[in-house]
């Protein structure tokens, strides 16, 4: 049994983590639910018992053995070192430590062995990166990959509960013929806001000096780190769309060796955590509405590129709050629990 803390317990990902810990019957001796001062005092029920959410402070982690963070990078940077000092293993859903060379970046189906290299902190990849590499890793192992071009169609839940509320509010306003008054998206901290209802916003996170957004650069850097190949050319365009749950990705890859399409399908059908949904005649392909609430990564629309002999096109969909965040983190926690028994 373990003393567990969930940091960001009242957020969209935190709620999913708590639900999974209960559903999976994770071996918990004591549970701490932590948040910002603003959310402290809220009540959350876990296994029939009511817990009061506490403000997260450096002293909150005394006696904690596993801490799951999903409260933003600044919170992780401020509190995770204190949690480690108190003896906790931190599993972090933010960007704070992902590219730290001493921090393993883990997708359990692909590189769970990296957990043993941790120095107190294990990083969850970006939600869009997780589903991308889950589908591409078996292809890379068999054929090698030289280039990846990915365009994402990302659900508003990736921006938190407030973004879900904003989408629903704006949708009602448009349908009722009222003013939309955008308040949050694309980036809450920036002055310009855009309508998300009935729209597509080609900006997720802040723009960097090279013209790419931080979200796009996360995908570039994290994909190279997880696939363990800095030579792969990766480029991304990340778009926010009016979907509540489930990120979708249009992916083009150039392989290093010739491939057979049926063999690629077989690889994906057998890949852990991946579901092949690919039947054009039956109009079977991954949909965000069908991936929502499920822990797997769904792949379909596999087809040869028309202009490159080793080019391959795929469509990848997954629930961004589950495999893209909470489920990936709980999988890591379960592995740690087994190793410590």
From TrEMBL:
NADP(+) binds at residues 10-13, 38-39, 157-158, 320. The keyword Aminoacyl-tRNA synthetase does not apply. SMART domains: Semialdhyde_dh. InterPro entries: Asp_semialdehyde_DH, Asp_semialdehyde_DH_beta, NAD(P)-bd_dom_sf, Semialdehyde_DH_NAD-bd, Semialdhyde_DH_dimer_dom. GO terms for biological process: 'de novo' L-methionine biosynthetic process; diaminopimelate biosynthetic process; isoleucine biosynthetic process; lysine biosynthetic process via diaminopimelate; threonine biosynthetic process. Transmembrane segments: none annotated. Belongs to the aspartate-semialdehyde dehydrogenase family. This is Aspartate-semialdehyde dehydrogenase. It comes from Paenibacillus sacheonensis. The gene is asd.
